[in-house]
Design brief:
Elements: E1 3-6, H1 66-77, H2 87-101, E2 107-113, E3 129-136, H3 139-143, E4 152-156, E5 169-175, H4 184-194, E6 195-206, H5 212-226, H6 239-248, E7 252-265, H7 268-277, H8 293-307, E8 314-326, H9 351-359
């Protein structure tokens, strides 16, 4: 049995199935590509390429094989029981939608970046978003998007190379997609560019402590059985860098917060299975393509010994970073000038006495 434990009790309490990650990507069919672009939106879109960038070569600035990631996501979208592996994305998509609802306005045109099958859109309504453009690099994911009351357009495109004109969208949302981007600063600049002034970006991505149980177990097993270890979990951005990157991209009035979701599994192999089913297998250029059978069994034993619960299950922790950033407009509220406060912090203790006096 698989269970999900959310660290924020105010969010939707939920129990979803499991999770299955890891290495290895299967070959897959490419099918027709959904794309419906209105000419006024388009900046650089090629019908032949589907606006998906050519695979980057390995290097310090390109840690991920984007071509492989596209194949993994396409393969996962074609699985007959793909709904079993969507529980985490649906949970986080709902939390991103909650942050959209917290903004008391209607967005005429929104962009869902790395939408998958519509994990955010299924929670939105046309009173909040009037029209929605759904973008994903995997065309098979766009073929199976969840129905919503909002009019939608599907576009195959890469998060690093958005095919839209400047100042197009009032809202950009993204959930659990940007952690596979090679150049996150560039992706943030692209998002900022396509936003209209006073537009807002609301996103969620995996944080640095994600799957630390799996990472430690694999490293210890490899050290014991093979005398060294290779990276099997992709690198993640640190929360201390996220606000800086958003600021450099041009966003202001920033909000960044973190949360953790813990999922309980029968064992390590179920964790790996679910990650693969979600299209979250490792696609780093420096990944090790195979692990010895003995090493895998040793890692599973270490995982259960170090992190196992009394009921025999093992936890997998997913750290989520949530971010909100606005594009500047003159009419936006601005912070008060330094030194312009009329009340000091030392006088705050007297506020109850002041309020009581006013009531009398």
């Amino acid at each position: 049995m698989r269970s999900v434990c959310c660290s924020d009790a105010s969010n939707r309490a939920s129990q979803y199935p499991l999770l299955r990650p890891f290495m290895g990507a299967a070959a897959l069919l490419w099918g027709s590509r959904p794309r419906l672009l209105r000419p006024g939106w388009c900046r650089r879109f090629s019908a032949a390429s589907g606006a998906v960038a050519a695979p980057a070569s390995p290097g310090a600035r390109s840690p991920f094989d984007r071509g492989l990631k596209r194949k993994q996501k396409n393969w996962a979208a074609l699985q007959p029981e793909r709904a079993k592996y969507e529980y985490l994305r649906e949970e986080v998509g709902g939390r991103v939608a909650d942050r959209v609802f917290d903004i008391a306005r209607t967005f005429p045109l929104a962009l869902d970046l790395g939408c998958g099958s519509g994990y955010i859109a299924q929670y939105l309504n046309k009173e909040t978003v009037e029209k929605l453009v759904q973008v994903d690099m995997a065309e098979n994911a766009l073929k199976n998007t969840t129905e919503t009351e909002i009019p939608t357009v599907s576009v195959v495109a890469d998060e690093e190379f958005l095919p839209f004109r400047e100042n197009t969208f009032n809202l950009v949302v993204s959930s659990l997609s940007l952690h596979w981007v090679n150049e996150l600063p560039r992706a943030f600049r692209e998002i900022h560019q396509v936003l209209k002034p006073d537009g807002v970006f609301i996103g969620a991505m995996f944080g640095g402590e994600t799957l630390y149980e799996l990472r430690c177990s694999l490293q210890l097993a490899e050290l014991e059985r093979e005398g060294g270890f290779s990276p099997h979990i992709s690198p993640f951005t640190d929360v201390t860098d996220l606000g800086h990157l958003l600021g450099r991209a041009g966003f202001n009035t920033l909000t960044v917060d973190t949360d953790e979701i813990q999922v309980n599994y029968p064992g390590m192999f179920e964790v790996l299975e679910d990650l693969q089913g979600m299209g979250e297998s490792n696609c780093s250029w420096n990944r090790k393509p195979m692990l010895h059978r003995e090493t895998m069994f040793a890692a599973a034993a270490i995982y259960k010994e170090m992190y196992g619960s009394k009921d025999g299950s093992v936890p997998a922790t997913f750290q989520i970073y949530y971010m909100i950033g606005w594009k500047f407009q003159e009419s936006q509220a601005k912070p008060a000038r330094r030194g312009s406060a009329t009340v000091s912090f030392g006088e705050l203790a007297k506020i109850n006495t002041f309020i009581s006096g006013e009531k009398k």
